[in-house]
Amino acid sequence: MPHAERYDLAVIGAGPGGYVAAIRAAQLGMRVACVDREAALGGTCLRIGCIPSKALLDSSELYWQARTRLATHGVAVGEVSLDLPTMLRRKEQVVHGLTTGVAALFKKLRITALQGSARLAGPDRVTIEGPQAGAVRASRILIATGSGPAPLPGFPLDRMRIVSSEEALSFDAPPARLLVIGAGAIGLELGSVWARLGSDVRVVEVMDRLVPGMDPELTRALQRALERQGLSFQLSASARKAVVTAASVDVTIEAEGAATTESFDRVLVAVGRRPFTDGLGLEALGVALDPKGHVRVDDRFQTSVPGVYAIGDVIGGPMLAHKAEDEGIACVEGIAGQAGHVNYAAIPNVVYTWPELAAVGKTEQECQAEGLNVATGTFPFAANGRARAMGERDGLVKFVADARSDRILGIHILGPRASELIAEATLAIEFGASAEDVARTSHAHPTLAEAVREAALAVAKRSIHS
User: Fold this and answer.
1) 0.90 exceeded by pTM
2) Which domain holds residue 401?
């Protein structure tokens, strides 16, 4: 039986961090086992997070474009109707194709996949409860269990009226009134999906702006764009409690010292995520946690117990799939004696609304708080030829550079396909580029990427088209 074998590495969690680490370890010649509670590989991101939400975002965007914008391009489509079952079925087909793809990679590389709940029984032993119960011995263990939705007091999830992002991916019909608590990426993306499909969407956020942590100039512009699409926002407001009735949810919202109660068909709680460590046996083994419940690791991702490592959401930092992937690769390369590393200054962050919001590096405000003297340059997509040809006028690109050296400290993009444009920005920061380096780099015309170059030119006050 596979359980009787001894492995070089046992990975707990088959999400982006875990399965990528397992694949890289196998490429490096290690014998690898990967344990996950679910039969389908891919973790939260692939099964019930990043991938299905993007599938719905793309489908709902096409529906919204057909209803509101195709006519301006001279495309007459007649009456447009929503076939939600087909849309949801397509989402599941996308997920299935990718999970089976990961399984095929595991098979190709002879990685042993085991289904069940894992628990550390020692620095070299993992016990498994569930469909493939047993125990696995490994020279090293990697914890990649990710995170789950953070709870909100007063809003117990019943999976019907009060839901997490998982249930919000599969509503059987667009809710007439949907309340989204939290104006981060998850709340705005899923709020956008259902607003496009016909829901009246209200977003409540305790902070005074959308996507706290992103550049305020761009988030204000994003709010205006989303309001034009029908979403409404109540900022600096707190959702205090919910009472579920037979037909609705009565929610008490407090703002400016006054409390009001309103009824909604469904409530999506999207106030963040917390590390998943329950039931892993970390405390008994002596694995140290920080005050927020994250696993403490050193610069090689090793925990306080030699031979036990951790990566991804469970160790804190940006809770992003690609950050977990990079950490997984760096961790196992370090185990193999190579020089894997993660440059945390070059981790992009994306909100997949329309327009998209993407950023890498520091904001202007973060630089000022650190006492850095910066120069900035901006360029609007309204002045970009390709964006105008697409009918996209919203958004801008913003560069933040060191005022003395011109080294790029941050790049922020709100606009069409910002999720793709941010790759150039990330590469520039990874290689320590200056704004001048980007400004002197030829960009094809007409492309959206020219807006990136123009913003780089604007740092030195010499943008051509603005």
Assistant:
1) yes
2) 346-459
